[in-house]
Amino acid sequence: MHLLRSILGELPGYLWSGWGAICSLLLLVAVWQLVSEHYGSLVLAQPLETLASFQQLWSNHTLPEALITTGRRALSGLFLALLLGTGLGLLAGISLTASMMSRPLVTVLLGMPPIAWLVLAMLWFGASDGTPVFTVFIATFPMVFIGALQGARTVDNQLNEMAQAMQLPKLMMLFDVYLPHIFSYLFPAWVAALGMSWKIVVMAELLANQDGVGASLAIARSHLDSAASMAWICAVVLLLLGIEYLFLEPIKRQVERWRVTDA
């Protein structure tokens, strides 16, 4: 509860500090407008045309329903990857033998293109939810696993020995010594996995499913509807930015306050 109040208390200042990100987004929209005027709306719809299509998709409930479906699939695969990847990565990080044995396997998983996993998933699961969920899981699992493994393997031995020499309580060592260090490796992996999960689930839906954002993008493409395509893309990007900067980043800033040093 104290952590939640602290995060909410710092949220206004954090949002105000995001003016630079807002400026960069406005610059991106300006470039978007110029490119659209040069090549025409058939190639790239203008921002206002995209906004009108976005409002239409929202008003007829097509967009929120598709986002919920896509989000459910992405978060299901991501949750499995976070759960298993974090747990197995920490266990492998504790054991040098397990760490050495797991590295080649993780390298293979990282090097495997997501589209290859998607083809296999389509053969195994067909047009069901299992295809995007499995593809998200298998593509994001090695990222989380590596983050957890590196966090567990790189704990400062001198700091650990000092904490043991001072006979710190087990809980204090866990929350003040181990977790802050491990979390500094885990959190970037989680954020990267979150972004990867949305890209993969949309790709999987586009090729394998009849609903969700990916399927809606496929329909817009078949109709040569550039405005609707851009509306769907913007919806996914805005949702992802909202999750990262309104939820994940404030938590990261709060948990990693120990990194801040006085000038």
Describe what you observe in this structure.
This protein has 263 residues and is mainly α. The protein has one domain (50-255): MetI-like fold, CATH 1.10.3720.10. The protein is built from eleven helices and no strands. The protein has helices at 2-16, 19-39, 47-59, 62-94, 96-111, 114-125, 130-153, 157-165, 170-208, 212-222, 226-255. Helix 3 packs across helix 11. The longest helix has 39 residues, at 170-208. The two termini are 30 Å apart.
Short structural summary:
This protein is 85% helix and 0% strand. The chain has 263 residues and is mostly helical. It has one domain: Orthogonal Bundle (MetI-like fold), CATH 1.10.3720.10.
Strand and helix layout:
Elements: H1 2-16, H2 19-39, H3 47-59, H4 62-94, H5 96-111, H6 114-125, H7 130-153, H8 157-165, H9 170-208, H10 212-222, H11 226-255
Helix pairs in contact: 1-11, 3-11, 4-5, 4-7, 4-9, 4-10, 5-7, 6-7, 6-9, 7-9, 9-10, 9-11, 10-11
Mean pLDDT: 81
Q: How many angstroms does the end-to-end distance come to?
A: 30 Å
CATH topology: MetI-like fold
**H/E element sequence:** HHHHHHHHHHH
As for the number of domains, it is 1
The share of residues in extended strands comes to: under 5%
CATH level-4 homologous superfamily: MetI-like
Secondary structure tally, helices: 11
Largest sheet: none
What features would you highlight for this structure?
11 helices; mainly alpha; 263 residues
